[in-house]
Amino acid sequence: xxxxxxxxxxxxxxxxxVFAIAMTLxxxxxxxxxxxxxxxxxxxxxxxxxxxxxxxxxxxxxxxxARFWFLHHGLIxxxxxxxxxxxxxxxxxxxxxxxxxxxxxxxxxxxxxFLSVVVYSATFLAAALALWALSALDHGRRGxxxxxxxxxxxxxxxxxxxxxxxxxxxxxxxxxxxxxxLLFPFVGRWERYRRKRENARSSDxxxx
Length: 208
What we know:
- The chain has 8 helices and 2 strands.
- The protein has one domain.
- Helix 1 runs antiparallel to helix 3 (52-76), helix 1 (8-25) runs parallel beside helix 4 and helix 3 (52-76) packs antiparallel against helix 4.
- It has helices at 8-25, 41-50, 52-76, 84-109, 114-142, 147-170, 174-179, 183-205; strands at 5-7, 81-83.
């Protein structure tokens, strides 16, 4: 009995739609400053500065989601079909992505609360673990240690480390704890560069 498979195009379409909606909803936390006329330059500048936490939260969540999109794209780019277990885990991943606007808004509205950082970190952690599971399924199907699996695994490990550190720091300073997630896109790029160099070095040293 053949395994049920699903077209890559349909998986990519619904994934891109979820990412697009989630990344767009993030901007709803950015409100125009409410000022009464006449408006001085100083009052306008102070009003904008008052919205700085909302802007930084939007930027942080947007950048992290963008990194997740790049990682996810690399996993589904090649093969034309995917098995049912891959699709099921992909929906778990998309659920975490869809929850990001809520956890981001929660962190903005209750920026001084430790639990807001826990929810924020747990959302990204769930996405990273699901992405690791997707890369493991991809690895199991191919039977080789692809660079996508290595990057997916290392990204999940980094996400676990950042989530733990963010929650620990949030006990004393929730805003600083949440800001640690800004490291995630950069460590991911560094990990990709490192893995490529290691693979290139292994190929150069291969006598065959």
